[in-house]
């Protein structure tokens, strides 16, 4: 089966502001493709307001209707970059005379090179978010971070990053990064350096493996909580039906919309190695979403085991109600903000979490004393944990509950 290269992904931009743009993907299928595509749309700040998925197990056809919140001014280069990233996520293909043909992926791609960006500069409110925004705009993916404020008013930022464009080893790309960082500084940069690091350096930079039991008991429990702001267990319904299709299990979901909703559903199904043969997603009035997914197991059969149905249903409910965990804890006289999210089995973390955390704190005019990102195994799940220690003076100017709600709502796309 062949298809023109330009037809693998087609992006039709909306003609009127507020109307959705349409992204069409037509390519070979693979388990987890929907998750990978939704992840890219989330990275680009796009919200999916409607979606259709259809596949015969070998070839798939996917249509997303997307909007950006808040609405930015996207030029043609931004849309072309989105298209390129979506094409890159499609299963491995070979090109011949302008046509693409399916080729099974025999080898997993090698892990991307990791670089250490060391930035020393004068501190100010909102600095960490501004630096994070620059790195995101340059398609530099933050894997780990250690931020420390020095008593003399300077700050040392250590970012372990990978480069989506795979060019950070070049002088031109490094100079582009230096220039972009200098442009956001109010005072001259004291020093800025980028170097490639090996796995042993990355391992040594791991955040502290210790998490207080009070924290793990609070934010890592798998039971569904009704204490989170603006959400309750009554907002999510997951029903399964094996009577409507001879070969598939229908999963019907009704829930509130949030940032990355479809990504969370697709990520869960990918982790369970389940394939979607047909799916439809749309937002009703307000934030109410209606989703129908016809799925099957890796062996091509429907899910008939009640225990497997129950496990999948419980996991989906948990992910839809609490795709992220947010808590505020006292650390001696200081206040610590903790945010955690499950990591995909492929070891990919959730996009833009650190960006949203720093944005929320910047909006609250709250200074950051130190920050770090680490990964922890809790039960049988790996979690990415963000720990942010607030400046002593700033931490006293806002209640922990208000801080928790503000960060939670921004992460969920409700603000």
TrEMBL record:
Instruction: Provide the alphabetized UniProt keywords.
Output: Repeat
Q: What domain of life?
A: Eukaryota
Q: Which Pfam families match?
A: ACR10_N, ACT, ACT_ACR9_3rd, ACT_ACR9_C
UniProt feature coiled coil, ranges:
none
Identify the residues that the record assigns to the ACT domain, covering every copy.
Answer: 116-199
Q: What does this protein do?
A: Binds amino acids.
**Descriptive protein name:** ACT domain-containing protein ACR
């Amino acid at each position: 089966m062949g298809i023109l290269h330009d037809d693998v992904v087609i992006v039709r931009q909306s003609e009127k502001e507020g109307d959705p743009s349409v992204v069409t993907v037509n390519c070979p299928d693979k388990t987890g493709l929907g998750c990978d595509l939704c992840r890219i749309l989330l990275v680009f700040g796009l919200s999916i307001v409607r979606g259709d998925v259809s596949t015969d197990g070998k070839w798939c056809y996917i249509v997303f209707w997307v909007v950006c919140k808040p609405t930015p001014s996207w030029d043609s280069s931004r849309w072309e970059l989105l298209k390129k990233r979506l094409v890159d996520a499609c299963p491995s293909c070979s090109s011949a005379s302008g046509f693409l043909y399916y080729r099974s992926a025999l080898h997993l791609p090698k892990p991307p090179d990791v670089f250490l960006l060391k930035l020393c500069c004068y501190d100010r409110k909102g600095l960490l978010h501004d630096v994070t925004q620059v790195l995101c705009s340059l398609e530099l993916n933050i894997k780990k971070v250690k931020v420390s404020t020095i008593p003399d008013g300077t700050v040392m930022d250590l970012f372990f990053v990978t480069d989506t464009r795979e060019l950070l080893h070049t002088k031109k790309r490094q100079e582009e990064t230096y220039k972009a960082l200098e442009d956001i500084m109010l005072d001259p940069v004291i020093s800025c350096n980028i170097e490639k690091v090996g796995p042993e350096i990355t391992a040594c930079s791991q955040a502290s493996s210790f998490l207080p039991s009070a924290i793990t008991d609070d934010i890592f429990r798998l039971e569904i909580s009704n204490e989170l702001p603006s959400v309750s267990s009554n907002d999510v319904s997951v029903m399964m039906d094996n009577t409507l299709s001879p070969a598939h299990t229908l999963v019907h979901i009704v829930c509130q919309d949030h940032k990355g909703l479809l990504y969370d559903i697709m990520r869960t199904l990918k982790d369970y190695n389940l394939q979607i043969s047909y799916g439809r997603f749309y937002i009703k009035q307000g934030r109410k979403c209606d989703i129908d997914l016809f799925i099957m197991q890796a062996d091509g059969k429907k899910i008939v085991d009640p225990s497997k149905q129950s496990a999948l249903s419980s996991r989906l409910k948990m992910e839809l109600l609490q795709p992220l965990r947010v808590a505020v804890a006292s650390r001696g006289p200081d206040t610590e903000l903790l945010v955690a999210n499950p990591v995909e089995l492929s070891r990919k973390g959730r996009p833009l979490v650190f960006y949203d955390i720093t944005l929320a704190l910047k909006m609250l005019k709250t200074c950051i004393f130190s920050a770090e990102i680490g990964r922890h195994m809790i039960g049988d799940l790996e979690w990415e944990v963000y720990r942010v220690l607030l400046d002593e003076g700033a931490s006293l100017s806002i209640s922990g509950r208000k801080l928790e709600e503000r960060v939670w709502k921004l992460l969920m796309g409700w603000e």
